[in-house]
UniProtKB/TrEMBL annotation:
PROSITE patterns linked: AA_TRNA_LIGASE_II
Organism superkingdom: Bacteria
Entry-linked InterPro entries: aa-tRNA-synth_II (IPR006195), aa-tRNA-synth_II/BPL/LPL (IPR045864)
Matching Gene3D superfamilies: Bira Bifunctional Protein, Domain 2
UniProt signal peptide: none
Domain Aminoacyl-transfer RNA synthetases class-II family profile residues, every copy: 1-122
Annotated organism of origin: Caballeronia sordidicola
Protein name as it appears in the record: Aminoacyl-transfer RNA synthetases class-II family profile domain-containing protein
Amino acid sequence: MRLKEFYQMEFQWLYAADSKCDYMREVMAPLTEWFSQGLCVPTRVVQSDRLPAYSERTWDIEAWNADKWMEVCSVSLRKDFPIQPKVKDRAIECRVLEIACGPDRMAYCKRRSLLAVPGLRPTMLLDVPVETLSQGAP
């Protein structure tokens, strides 16, 4: 049972089942780098500790949140996707790579990490005394 609510953004990548390319392998390094640069925190790739029923393989991208590693993205090779596109009235067997990201988790990791390092901490409205905000106001 999962008790923590979160938001999820999913991307579905359809490709021909007879493709020679391992798209999962191809996307993992660029995705991990993108998360690391975008969140300004270390990231790592781990094999998922829970394999969803719809997945043949799942890898997670985790980001450091100044306290622990937190999953921010899962990449799964789905086995249950019902779409079979047709080309010239012939069904093409497809595979589906799913990239699922948690935008709220990304924001949480970035905020926690920035607040943990005083030199990186941005000046936030809550850090400024009320008197300072009212100075120079008409």
